[in-house]
Amino acid sequence: MRLNAIKPADGSKRAALRVGRGKSAGQGKTCGRGHKGQRARKGGYHKVGFEGGQMPLQRRLPKSGFRSHLHRVVAELRLHELQTAAKDGGTVDLDVLKRSGLVGLHIERVRVFASGKLEGPVAVRGLELTKGARAAIEAAGGRIED
Hints:
- It contains 4 helices and 6 strands; from the N terminus they run αβαβαβββαβ.
- The protein is an alpha/beta fold.
- The strands form 2 sheets. A 3-stranded parallel beta sheet has the order 1-3-5. It has a 3-stranded parallel beta sheet with strand order 2-4-6.
């Protein structure tokens, strides 16, 4: 195969419309732009959302909601997910969670919630724990290293 022989599959690309080539071509004279007005001009069109000077819809509606910037660096984890990262009774920390794919690579802090059950003891280092998660880990015979 050669690079100069590569071409799109038949029918996947539509030929560009050739405008301004006479009446019989179907797009002659005004080229489908109509007569006069802003849209008929060469460089003339308005920005997205512009309504002719009327207050645009996106500015008439109230702002709502809140999106925290912390969601990029803070992750939440459940107890049963913690169990999957703790292979062979090893200590679970941020690096182990990143390697196992349970949290993203850009995560800086992990908070563990008491959701699900622990099957066996788990050692946890450097993770934030809720009161319920802390109690569940200690009840299962695990240890918490800060």
